[in-house]
Amino acid sequence: MPKKSNSIRWVIAVGVIVFIGVMAYSSFQETRTRYEVCMTFKGATHCATAAGATQDQAVRSAQEIDCELLANGRDENVVCLGQQPSSVRPVR
Questions:
Q1: Pairing outcome for strands 87-91 and 44-52
Q2: Which of 50, 58, 78, 91 makes a 20 to 30 Å CA pair with 68?
């Protein structure tokens, strides 16, 4: 019986190592691209930097940060998010 118990421990250990590796790899893939986005809303401007797996995800995330700080309430936030950014630039 001890031999079977030892095998199970090795399988569990390998499984944990693989799981940690997959989580680390996917985390690095999530934040592969970074962009600084500036939004102007009601005469005020705010710039935020965000990361994402794609350019669209990173830009949208930065827009959401900007509009959350510039808009007053949910309705204005929706209007702000519907506008084009004042500037978008990649960050290395």
A1: unpaired
A2: 91
